[in-house]
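Schema walk-through. Below, the input block comes first and the output block second. Nothing else is stored per chain. Lengths vary across the set, and this one has 272 residues.
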Amino acid sequence: MGLYIFILRQAATGYRSYIKSRVTRWGPTFLLSFAIPFIMADLCRHIIQDYGVWPECGNNEMYSRINSTDPFPASCTWSSDQYHCEHSCCVPMWSNTTNNWDSPQSTYFPADKATVTAQFAVSLNAAGDDLRFPAGFDSSKQPWRIFSYPLVFDMTGTVNIAKGGKNKYPRGTCKYGVNEETGYCWLTDQTLSYEDQLATLNGGACDCDSCLPNSHEAIGYLSPVGIIFTIVFTYTGFILLAVAVMWNADIVKKFKTIGAQWKELRERARGR
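--- output ---
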């Protein structure tokens, strides 16, 4: 911002204010005006991603990759993620036979390090009087929620996405078929034993927290949005910034002056 004010003042009241050509006088200011939004674009993407305004590719309804055999499916192309995801997004389903999740998870109660800690009950009928409670449920702690079965939480832990999940995948998308109860793909081969299925998940757990290893946050893993914001916008902004600064400094004219002076010095040296 300080640089922008400096260049603006040069054009308004400084030495550039005496230039008759409007293009030459105001050109650096206009270029810098375009450069700033380009440079700030990726930072703004991070902010609106963190606040949930532009969702990431994961456990949500807009850019869902829930139980997709492709960690970064086509539905996530225009999500806010900077990189392609490599870890599968596995969402645990509530089991009404064990009164618990059908696979290990860390996000929801009663997991030890749950990020969604609110207690809940699961109703097996529309009337809501046939309730099931997870292990460790304490009915004396209020309030607690009642969800309908089949229960599949979204990233907030408050929405039963399973109600709207039917027939959401194109034919051939689900490698292991579709779970008819939820409408989501089976993420593992259902002919395998329970233990073997767990071994194929993200470290034996059913989570959506991780997108890809930190070591893979490199240019080769950029998503389409990452390419646009990280490369196109950012580098376009810096190129415009460099041109604006050099134009404001009349760098071309100064190089020509240096060249003329160098030529003059060489001619003097030959004449001695």
